[in-house]
Design a protein that fits this description.
single chain; alpha+beta
Length: 132
């Protein structure tokens, strides 16, 4: 399977399978773009429509955070762990990853967390999704 070059932050919507290829093959256009920003991202369960809003603030930004999802399927999120425990690890193939908001590394982690809470509230992911 061939992966396209990074399409721009406003056009990212990739399946788990595609993201795995991007991470495993260390595709530079993607790595360069995703490791140089902090941000708020969305994981969509394409089977149920449930959403999870997360944020990335650490070293290598969204690249590092999404690498965790590729490595274990859940990134440490309890609700996603439960879904994978109940449905099997292959269920992660139902997840799609997209970006809601980006910021540079000069932006405070507190601001990123505030924006994450904003999106959780707007998308109601505590009530109807995987944020708990």
């Amino acid at each position: 399977m061939e992966v396209e070059e990074f399409p721009g932050y406003n056009s990212v919507a990739v399946s788990y399978a595609i993201l795995k290829i991007i991470i495993d093959q260390n595709i530079q256009s993607w790595k360069g773009a995703l490791s140089n920003i902090k941000g708020v991202y969305l994981i969509t369960d394409t089977n149920t429509g449930k959403l999870y809003v997360g944020s990335a603030t650490g070293f290598n930004g969204i690249w590092s955070r999404w690498t965790e999802y590729i490595n274990n399927g859940h990134g440490g999120n309890k609700s996603l762990m439960e879904v994978l425990n109940n449905n099997g690890v292959e269920y992660r193939n139902n997840f799609q990853y997209s970006i809601l908001e980006i910021a540079d590394f000069h932006t405070s982690d507190d601001f990123i967390k505030q924006r994450e809470r904003y999106w959780i509230n707007v998308l109601k992911t505590k009530d109807f999704g995987y944020n708990n």
